[in-house]
TrEMBL record:
Tagged with keyword Transferase: yes
Protein name: Sulfotransferase
Organism: Rhynchospora pubera
Pfam families reported for this sequence: Sulfotransfer_1 (PF00685)
Record keyword Transferase present: yes
Enzyme class: transferase
Homology family: Belongs to the sulfotransferase 1 family.
Keywords of the record: Transferase
Xref: InterPro entries: P-loop_NTPase (IPR027417), Sulfotransferase_dom (IPR000863)
Occurrences of domain Sulfotransferase (ranges): 38-300
Upper lineage: Eukaryota, Viridiplantae, Streptophyta, Embryophyta, Tracheophyta
Transmembrane segments: none
Enzyme Commission numbers on file: 2.8.2.-
């Protein structure tokens, strides 16, 4: 499938996953060459589920003793520049970027669990997965695609986009398989996969920031707690703050995480729960909910 269902690259169906041709090439190289270290931390997500936020939170948590929060790299770098997107680095021959990340290496991926390189699955490295109500993912994806492709007249109608999404036709889709596989794996190996939900973090950011810090091996100390470091990190990474940093207002330049001309502004929109209500009819929402409910049945997972 050509545009508009992929963003800039045709989608291929590979082992049941819709994946942009270029990312598939990167994935195959990565599967062959990538060697994971036990200290590695991977941030995994379906696109538009809160990746940017998770990157900011994990990066600022991990680097908090090295960089003071008032001169933090996130003030001058977009989160996608701080945490490289693995498939893309391998697709574009820039894997040396990954080789030089100081340990513990923080990297991100949109790959479904089963397509991760064996060395990630087999080593004792950790994975943090973020998921989100697929209805809001769809809306976020719709706005993102419009920005990249230059407006609604350059792409499918919303109804068409919705239909394709429900068929699983979006980068790394279908979304339900993506979420379910990480969920099942996180139940089997909770020490390896932390399974987080966007909506929960939005509701109790401090609680989840602490859980994240603990999981990635740098829990907040008592004195940090007293100095409200967690709250400061949560504040630094809030969408309200991040949107306002000059670096994220810069609409002209591509991020280093991509060679598409994706402006850094595109990653920050509303950051709310339930924006689907202003786009979908109740019937559309119900149909997608029913579909997801059927797919999640018996897994213990609910939207
Ligand atoms: P909306 O389009 O619903 O606003 P991803 O980072 O996976 O591409 O996901 C993008 C979504 O996360 C967008 O959702 C974006 O606004 C939201 N987002 C980005 N930064 C955020 C932050 N710091 N806090 C909360 N949500 C954020």
């Amino acid at each position: 499938y050509e545009r508009p269902f992929s963003i800039g690259h045709p989608l291929r169906l590979y082992k049941g996953v819709w994946i942009a041709e270029k990312m598939l090439r990167g994935t195959l190289v990565m599967q062959q060459c990538f060697k994971s270290c036990p200290t590695d931390i991977f941030l995994a997500s379906f696109p538009k589920s809160g990746t940017t936020w998770l990157k900011a939170m994990a990066f600022s948590t991990l680097t908090r003793t090295k960089c003071s929060l008032d001169k933090h790299p996130l003030l001058t770098h977009n989160p996608h520049q701080c945490v490289p997107y693995m498939e893309l680095q391998f697709a574009t021959g820039r894997r040396q970027i990954i080789d030089v990340i100081p340990s513990p290496r923080l990297m991100s991926t949109h790959l479904p669990y089963f397509l991760l390189p064996d060395s990630i699955k087999e080593s004792s490295c950790r994975i943090v997965y973020i998921w989100r109500d697929p209805k809001d993912v769809l809306i976020s994806a719709w706005h993102f695609a419009q920005k990249i492709l230059g407006g609604p007249d350059k792409m499918a109608t919303f109804d068409q986009f919705y239909e394709f999404f429900c068929q699983g036709l979006y980068s790394f889709g279908p979304i339900w398989n993506h979420i379910l596989e990480y969920w099942e794996e996180s139940k089997r190996r909770p020490e390896k996969i932390l399974f987080l939900k966007y909506e929960n973090i939005l509701q109790e950011p401090v609680k989840y920031a602490k859980q994240l810090a603990h999981f990635i091996g740098c829990p907040f100390s008592e004195s940090e707690e007293n100095q409200h470091v967690v709250e400061q990190i949560v504040e630094l990474c809030s969408i309200k703050k991040m949107k306002d940093f000059d670096v994220n207002k810069d609409s002209d330049r591509a991020t280093s995480s991509t060679d598409l001309r994706i402006s850094k502004t595109y990653f920050f929109r509303k950051g709310e729960v339930g924006d689907w209500k202003s786009h979908m009819t109740p019937e559309m929402a119900e149909r997608l909910d029913t579909l997801i409910k059927e797919k999640f049945e018996g897994s213990g997972l609910q939207i």
